[in-house]
Amino acid sequence: MSSLSDQVLAGQLEEHIAELADTKAKLAIVELELGAMKFHADNTDSALAVARTEISATRSGLVTMQFKLVTSNSELAAAKTEASKITSELAVAQYRLTNLSDAVAAMEADLASTKAALDRLQLLHAGQQAPRPLPALPDPARLGDLALYDVWHAEMRVKLRVDRRAIGSDEALFIYVFGRLEPPLQKHVVREVEAAEAHGRFDFQRLFWALSNVHGTLSNGVTSNGGNVH
């Protein structure tokens, strides 16, 4: 009986030992699985940390983009305000330009009207002016001999007194007296002609004085300053 009991106990012990070995094997497998799970968890934590870093960077980039967008919107609003201001100023300038154009057009019309009125007045004045009278006396003979100067001078004085208006201006009187001299005597008064042309003062009295100096006789009372010729 004792031997049988020992055998049973030995058999049970062997079963327990086998079960224990099987349990240890399973435990080892579980430990391996736990190690694998821990490794995977560590990798997952690392991936999560990387993901968190990328999310943080993305958020920072998004904030930067939002700031730039706000800045761009502000700049766009400022640009729109400036454009509106420029448009208003341009409208004011255009309005002023239109007014100036109208004013210039009105001034041009007034100027044209004034010129037309002036032309009419000039035509009316020209129509009212009395025609120049015809000469009443014949032209004195041309003086070519100073021996005849006194007679020629007397005839010329009468001619200038009677036909002064018919001859015309002081310049015309000066030219008339010079033209009644023959070329040999004209050379004696060339300086007087040049002086008259240089200064614009045509006094035929200067011609008489020059001829009187050549002739040796003084002649008095002849003037071209608007009075009578004596």
Describe the structure.
Residues 218-230 have low confidence and may be disordered. The protein is 79% helix and 0% strand. The protein has 7 helices and no strands. By secondary structure, the chain is mainly α.
Briefly characterize the structure:
The chain is mainly alpha-helical and 230 residues long. It contains 7 helices and no strands.
Defining traits:
230 residues; mainly alpha; 7 helices; 79% helix
Computed CA radius of gyration, to the nearest angstrom: 67 Å
Helix content: over 70%
* Major beta-sheet overview: none
Provide the structure class: mainly alpha
List low-pLDDT spans.
218-230
The rounded distance between the terminal residues' Cα atoms is 203 Å
Q: β content, as a range?
A: under 5%
* Series of secondary-structure elements, N-terminal to C-terminal: HHHHHHH
Gross morphology: rod-shaped
Number of helices: 7
Q: Give the tally of β-strands.
A: 0
Overall residue-averaged pLDDT value: 78
Q: How would the blueprint of this fold be written?
A:
Elements: H1 2-128, H2 149-162, H3 164-167, H4 170-179, H5 183-186, H6 190-199, H7 204-215
